[in-house]
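Reviewer 2 asked us to include a model.

Predict the structure of this chain.
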Amino acid sequence: MLGILLMNIVGFGLPLSAYGDPSVAGGATGRNLVTWVITNVFFEGTFRTLFSLLFGAGVVLFTVRAEQRSNTVQAADLYFRRNMWLIVFGVLHGYLLLWVGEILYAYGVTALLLFVFRKISATKLLCGGLLVLAVLLPKRAIHTREMYDACDRCAQVWMIVTPWQYLQPWQRDAVCQWREIERNYKPTPVDIEQEIALHQSDYRTMVTRMATINRLVQSKWYYRWTLWDVFGTMLLGMALLKYDVLTARRSVVFYVILLVVGYALGLSVNVWETRRIIASGFALGELQQTQQTYDVGRLAVTAGHLGVVMLICRLGILRRLTAVLAAVGRMALTNYVMQSVICLLVFTGVGWGQYGQLERYQLYWVVAAIWAVQLLLSPIWLRFFRFGPLEWLWRCLTYWQLQPFLQRRPRDACPVVDPVASTS
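Predicted model (structure tokens):
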């Protein structure tokens, strides 16, 4: 939950194209370049993947417990109601809190597919998850080929010494298509100024204008990219829970191997991609080419992160830190939405209007402040309340009745909880 903000903060505070290309906005030299390199090598895509793994594991935990308390039909009723409400939360989060990187909608829709897989063996889930994720490899290759073809068609048109008005319709379309691609990945200074002005405008204007982007993200973009990413990773999460990887019950040697192999492969791929992009001067072609190995790098580094976290849990060290982090995880939905609310107030015209005003490295001052607030408030809140406010609301809507909210007595400290159980 906290790690996701390391990447999301760029989308909150800078023009969207700057997320993967620091030369667009926020600075691409000095401390800004170092910041981009660190996040691109160590964190890009990894915390989102961890979150999806835990969500998939949570599907198994939720359905098992629901079926133990009632029959399968009632468990299915609870499960689908729970995820239909998550879809509603996602729509509200994206459209009203103006976060185009919103993931709750994708999780809710994808989770509707997972119920029938809950009792499949770990091995089949693992193989199925890897096969689904493997679909992304040819899709990225095809997308890259389409971009190069569009570039070639445009170049051929410009070689024709003919005034624009005499070009054939397909020739004009070729030029317009490539210009649109360039604007999406390499916006002009005018485009950037317009995007900054939009985010610094009034709330009604932002909601109206950004609704178009949200519709694209929750429809075409979801079915083309997000579905395969999230669905495959959730299946892996279900498998890893059944293999006892996510419960810290495997051996220390297992987690050390996971850590070493994951980082060795993943960091090698990510460093190679990063060096290639920088050497090209952040050329559009290189940015797109490195996407073809993106999933290999981020999945391997995620395995390394998972090895570190599970090794800490397995050895029982850093208990005070893990207790505080567990509290943040138990309030994952509340803290996720809280991050969006805070960033809405900090960066847009609703609040201080800092969108596009900070350099890339300065955005992480905001991250540190948000982390401090959530690490402080989450354990305190859970001393007095059973759930975070949004978790409580979600639970009430799922069971369709008011749920107990107050603790019977204040707790002296937040207990260390199973890192997976917090998602259920």
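The radius of gyration is 23 Å. The longest helix spans residues 252-279. We have added this to the supplementary material.
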